[in-house]
Amino acid sequence: MTVNVCDWDVGPGALMIGACIRLSLEEGEPIPTSEQTAKTKVYGMPYHGNYIDLYGVNSAWAKYTLEQIYTELTATIGANTVSGNPLISNLDTSDLVVGMEVTGAGIPGSTTIISINSASACTLSNDATATDYGVSLTFKVPPDTTMDIFIYRDGVNGNKLQKVTYTDDTTRQEAVSYLDGRRVKTSEPAYLLVGTCRTSSTAGQTQWTEDSKLLCNEFNRQPVKLFSCPGYVDDNAETSYSFTNTSIAPVNGGADSTLEFVLTDISQIVRCRIVCMYTDAGVAGFIALGIDDTAHDRVRTFSAAAPSVNERVIDYPNKFDEPGHHFIEFLCMIASGTGTIYADQPGGSGGSDLDPYSSYIVAVLEM
Asked: Confidence band (pLDDT; 50, 70, 90) for 276?
């Protein structure tokens, strides 16, 4: 379900239910103005309005003013430790999740949170090696971890964001269901789903780049493009690479051959395209699109003509069966011999000084 710019649903009793919120990795910018790398916070901010309706008091929706808030993927918090004890205390656990990596004085390597005991205590996977009070500890969401982001009302601190990790790339740990047209935690409807995020290959960090967009909104989605041209060099000279693999595999040895993203809703359509300029050895050369798979293709095209320069285009609108983390891959193979893919070929219709893209992968979706 896509909810457009501050759309309003009519709930029971003609209550107008609004969600004027977008998640972003750039502070103060609901729609990022540039690439965002190594980001440690996910911001929730007003968008085309400054109100959010949340369910709770008297089993009804209530309207609250929304200001910029955030949840941290890397958080540094003071806590008390006791030597020989895995319990740490006297810390705010509201922004922590089970599985977070923990480092700091008196904390052994490879330590994680195994349980959140209360609003001020949690249990670690290893005993502390020192007794300390107010010691600074750093908590990081593990690398390559998908999570949903919820907004809820804290009676003391107002609106807050909460992250809930998935059990794997595409399986929610916390079930969500529709309530008056809005998705909420099934077990706690006071928590409204506002998006999905994923850490990058670095613990405690996420990103929004040309080929990797790891944040998706539940509300107020905007069209975005992902793009990569494997092997491209901006040098006004032809760039190409060969392939001899006789089974399906990523082009360019897997370098820059992937676009990755997260989805909040399985109804989201991802429109994919591969454009490829290549020569083959006069035998079948295949160019293919991988969907969450680098060894099998969903769509392919080929040439079996005499050696020549061929251009192939694959278009594929696709819905994914699960939310969470997904990727599409630029794949190739050849029956025998050697094929050549041209990343760029100056001197084409755009002029020799433009160094235009010749072989690339692109996807468009709303996030």
From this structure: confident
The domain segmentation of the chain, as residue ranges, is 8-71+146-220, 74-140, 225-366
Amino acid at 297: D
What is the strand order of the sheet 41-46 is part of? Answer: 21-24, 41-46, 69-72
- What pLDDT does residue 288 have? 87
Cα of first residue to Cα of last residue in the chain, in angstroms, is 12
Among candidate residues 160, 147, 43, the one with its CA nearest the CA of residue 95: 160
Sequence length of the chain is 367
- Is 309's pLDDT higher than 90? no
Instruction: Note the pLDDT of residue 336.
Output: 86
pTM higher than the cut 0.85: yes
Neighbours of 139 (CB within 10 A): 26
Provide CB contacts within 8 A for 59, sequence distance 6+: none
Residue 24, H or E segment: strand 21-24
- Given a cut of 80, is residue 353 above it in pLDDT? no
Side chain identity at 191, as an amino acid letter? Y
- Tell me if residue 253 falls in helix, strand or coil: helix
Give the count of alpha carbons within 13 A of 223, CB side only: 3
Q: Which CATH class is domain 225-366?
A: mainly beta
Do residues 220 and 335 lie in contact, with contact meaning Cβ atoms separated by under 8 Å? no
CATH code at 74-140: 2.40.10
Token pair recorded at residue 65: 């003013």
Dihedral sign (CA 32, 169, 263, 226): positive
3-class DSSP assignment, residue 20: coil
Tell me the DSSP string of 293-319. -SSS-SEEEEE-SSS-EEEEEEEEEEE
Say if CB 19 and CB 44 are below 8 A apart.
no
| CA separation for the pair 349, 359 (Å, rounded) | 15
